[in-house]
Amino acid sequence: MQTTQPTSNNWAVRFYTLWTGQAFSLLGSQLVQFAIIWYLTQKTNSATTLAIASMMGLLPQVLLSPFIGTWVDRGNRRVLLIAADTTVALATIVLALLFAFDIVQTWHIYVALFIRAVAGGFHQSAFGASVVLLVPKEHLARVQGFNQALHGGLNIISAPLGAFLLSVLPMQGIMAVDIGTAILAVSIVFFTVIPQPDRSAQKQMTFWQDFIAGFRYISAWRGLVILLAMVMVINFFYTAAESLTPLLIAKHFKGGAQELGWWQAFFASGTILGGIILGAWGGFKRKIVTAQTGLIFMGLSTVVIGLAPDHLFWLGLAANTLTGLVMPITNGSYGATLQTSIAPEMQGRVFAFIFSAAMLVSPLGLMIAGPIADAFGIQLWFWIAGGVCALMGAFGFLLPEVMGMENKKTEGSPHVVTELS
User: How far apart are CA 99 and CA 120, in angstroms?
Assistant: First the structure.
């Protein structure tokens, strides 16, 4: 049967029940990720091994995201969520058995990480594309805020919780936790009604026609192209800045592990607080205004990090905390803007293309940032990153294509969905 967009009367219980299950599943996945990386560190003591393990978890999502997004837009998102979580659980069960019988090899772990990453890509795309069909538009920014707070909180607790579990459980025991959280998530999805977009116009299209349609949808929308370029530039600078942070603490501020710990903890705390603020506030009426303003403040606070004298660690720490606070408000507002503007039946592909393009520039940023920091000082990269970020935020206010994103009528099928049990 047919239904319109979710209303304020029927969406909250259904969505937040689903959201809670996904949050537990994400925690379980992060615990396994921490345990595996620590196991490989102790067993191999090899940077190459750790790099390959990281690539097994990252490259599938970066390279396959556009294809995954197309499958999500063509398929039943509820079924895909169940299949993705089930696949993760099955891969983890096999790995747990290998650990239990003490026959695990490094290549077994690589394969498991690859499978989990592919399934995780389907899960991320399917859940993200379902949000706009589960949540009224006026509440999308608040949901984005709570998502940002969730990720910030998990970043704080997953490592110490993983370390504690490693001290009391064998590897297969930690994996059992992940399997349990996956079963919980699958059970909730199984009994949850997730609306589906109207795809009557897509029924005659092949997979590759849908795939190309995603590219055309983005390229024909000037505002979205500009926004995508901004995301790529931000990732180019900020991924490298994150990797240079330990050197900033050690070489510039003359700090040690304790100072680095405080730096990371305060940033994560700022992220949680910023997510809660956006969740409670919802941002300005026009979400793009919130996003562009946040971008300016995020850039300025990053510049302050670079300008902080070596004897004023507290100033850098305060600016870093402010960056952490503003980042979820900015990211969440951008996410809500896109969810509101992009046609529901195109969301899987469009968000996948954005994610893939944004992540592809990160390695290039890392390659360039290192030599620049070595030659001219680590602080210079933070000045450049923050300055460019603030300028993009200010420049966006001058572009009607960007500021009018929320006023654009979504292309494709109308916002009418089919209710599937």
Answer: 22
Q: In what order do the strands lie in the sheet with 2-3?
A: 2-3, 417-418, 196-197
Instruction: Return per-residue pLDDT of the chain as tens, 421 residues.
Output: 344 456 556 788 888 889 999 899 989 988 888 888 888 877 887 767 876 887 787 778 778 888 888 888 888 889 999 999 999 999 999 999 999 999 989 999 999 999 998 998 898 888 888 888 888 888 888 888 888 888 878 877 877 788 788 888 899 999 999 999 999 999 999 988 888 776 655 556 777 888 888 888 888 899 999 999 988 888 888 888 887 887 888 888 988 877 887 888 888 889 989 999 998 898 898 999 999 999 999 999 999 999 999 999 999 999 999 999 999 999 989 988 988 888 888 888 888 888 888 878 877 887 788 888 888 888 999 999 999 999 999 999 999 999 998 876 544 433 333 333 2
Q: Which amino acid type is present at position 405? A: M
What structural domains and CATH numbers belong to the chain? 2-204+414-418 (1.20.1250.20), 212-407 (1.20.1250.20)
Taking only Cα atoms into account, the Rg of the chain, rounded to an integer number of angstroms, comes to: 22
Token pair for 155: 């970043």
Cα–Cα distance list, 260 to 34, 89, 94, 253, 394 (Å): 19, 34, 37, 10, 31
The residue type found at 136 is: P
Dihedral angle sign, alpha carbons of residues 389, 392, 396, 401: negative
Residue with token string 């937040």: 16
